[in-house]
Amino acid sequence: MKILVATEKPFAAVAVNGIRQIAEGAGHELVLLEKYTDKAQLLEAVADVDAMIVRSDKVTAEVVAAAPKLKIVVRAGAGFDNLDLPACTEKGVVAMNTPGQNSNAVAELAIAMMIFMSRNQFTPGTGMEVKGKKVGIQAYGNVGRLVAEKAKALGMEVMAFDPFVPAEKMVEEGVIPAESLEQMYEQCNFVSLHIPAIPATIGSINYNLISRMPKGGCVVNTARKEVINEPELVKVLEDRPDIKYVTDVAAAIQAELNEKFPKQVFATPKKMGAETAEANINAGLAAAQQICNYFATGCTKFQLNK
Ligand code: 3PG
């Protein structure tokens, strides 16, 4: 089978080597399309492939239609808002992700961002320690749990809101279950977002929530830009010059935010949460293995469009 790695933001070379070893070791052919700049390149590259590994690359209905032999696509990572699942299902393409494989890298970045903002974006002046401060984890999944663990090690208090995780489990792990999102925003110095971009969450981080934060409150976004209500974020930053927003997923209006609120807002130049050799190896090799397993045994573990 022909397996394509299509990554606009490429994996570390060491991860690509590992993917190749797994694919070729199982008797498959591996082809690469890295750092592509145009959708046309992707459409051409998928024409004769049986399987695809992607990162945040958009696998749209157009891409699926341009890949008549495609049987499986694996998003090497957690969030799968870049995959058109109905289009995959319609064409009989199995879609998977690799949950948990890059979580530690993202969690480390979330912690780094909290410290970076607490130290005035590494500019001179008096900053704040995170020890003794309270962080609210919005969605206690793979990344949220790791942020909680690391925050506790730094002496922070941790609260979490997740309607899908029993409160007892959080308590067992030393985390205070929030009764509501409103309560969590009211009580926390930091809120770290780990929610997917789905209809229920898109635009949900709004004025009503952010404006409840205590003085100096900081929202940390290593999730998706779509979950932020950007016009309301602007309003809250205007009304509350003490509030901060740090993001690894640049807003649609990032240039405006940077210009208006340079001390309150920071965005990484390019999404880098999962940009570590370890995360690339974990997620990339897992994706390759899942494809080989599917071809060898029909294993559909982690299938998203069942
Ligand atoms: C994910 O959903 O796994 C992360 O957002 C990482 O995305 P990336 O592979 O585009 O860096």
Count structural domains: 2
Strand content is 15-25%
Give the overall average pLDDT. 98
What would you report as the Rg, rounded to the nearest angstrom? 20 Å
Q: Strand order, biggest sheet?
A: 8-7-6-9-10-11-12
- How would you characterize the largest beta sheet? 7 strands, parallel
> What name does CATH use for the topology of the largest domain?
Rossmann fold
What binds here, in terms of ligands, is: 3-phosphoglyceric acid
Q: What low-confidence regions span 5 or more consecutive residues with pLDDT below 50?
A: none
N→C terminal distance = 23 Å
Q: What is the number of beta strands?
A: 12
What is the share of helical residues? 25-40%
SSE-based structural type: alpha/beta
Characterise this structure.
With 306 residues, the chain is α/β, with parallel strands linked by helices. It folds into two domains: 2-101 and 276-297, NAD(P)-binding Rossmann-like Domain (Rossmann fold, 3-Layer(aba) Sandwich); 103-267, NAD(P)-binding Rossmann-like Domain (Rossmann fold). Helix content is 37%, strand content 17%. It has helices spanning 13-25, 39-45, 61-65, 85-90, 103-118, 142-153, 167-172, 181-187, 207-210, 230-239, 254-260, 277-297, and strands at 2-7, 29-34, 51-54, 72-75, 94-97, 134-138, 157-161, 176-177, 190-193, 218-221, 244-247, 265-267. Strands 8-7-6-9-10-11-12 form a seven-stranded parallel β-sheet, with helices on both faces. A five-stranded parallel β-sheet has the order 2-1-3-4-5, sandwiched between helices. Helix 10 (230-239) links the parallel strand 10 (218-221) and strand 11 (244-247). Helix 5 crosses helix 6 (142-153). The longest helix has 21 residues, at 277-297. The chain starts with a strand and ends in a 9-residue tail after the last helix. Bound molecules: 3-phosphoglyceric acid. Residues 9, 55-56, 77-79, 102, 271, 273-274 line the site of 3-phosphoglyceric acid (3PG).
